[in-house]
Amino acid sequence: MRKVNLGCAYTKIDGFINVDFNPQCKPDIVHNLMKGLPFDSNSVDEVRADDFIEHMPDFVSMMNEIGRVLKPGGLLKARFPHYATEGAYSVAHPRITTIEDFHCFEPHYTRNFEYSIRGERLNKCFQIIESGTSEAKEPCPFWCGVTHPFEKCHVVARNMT
């Protein structure tokens, strides 16, 4: 089973291919994820995106890339700051991410946009099988090392292609 942890930073997951643009994090693969994912189509069983997706300026293109690399039936497990918490508002987050954003990639969902900021068509290939919020208490690994309580959202989606 091939599992990928996107934007791992210093939080590597055993059993996953850990990918980040920063070589100082010592990921398994150093890659600028804004230029696509370094995997073949239909080659990955699970993608983890913990505190990663909100850093992507083009959410649609990243979701399309995740859909491209996931095998049919493969899972995306994403976690990100709740929009109503301080953690969502950072200079490192070019956009606020919501659970609703992920629903846009379900075939039956009809929201008024179908294209990314680069003009890429939205690939409606996911089925949301779980979503919700929870409080998290985690150390801030990048800048202060202090533990902060904040609310997180999570989504689990299955690739339906």
Structure description:
It is built from two helices and seven strands. The relative contact order is 0.18. It has a single domain, classed as Rossmann fold (3-Layer(aba) Sandwich). The model has no long low-confidence stretch (mean pLDDT 88). The protein has helices spanning 59-69, 99-103, and strands spanning 3-6, 17-20, 29-30, 44-50, 70-81, 126-139, 147-159. A hairpin with a 7-residue loop joins strand 6 and strand 7 (147-159). Helices cover 10% and strands 35% of the residues. The protein has 161 residues and is mostly beta strands. The protein starts with a strand and ends with a strand. It is globular.
Please tag this protein with its features.
7 strands; single chain; Rossmann fold; globular; 35% strand; 161 residues; mainly beta; 2 helices
Tell me the layout of helices and strands.
Elements: E1 3-6, E2 17-20, E3 29-30, E4 44-50, H1 59-69, E5 70-81, H2 99-103, E6 126-139, E7 147-159
Parallel strand pairs: 1-2, 1-4, 2-3, 4-5
Antiparallel strand pairs: 5-7, 6-7
The CATH superfamily appears as Vaccinia Virus protein VP39
| Rounded average pLDDT | 88
Low-confidence stretches: none
CATH topology: Rossmann fold
Shape estimate: globular
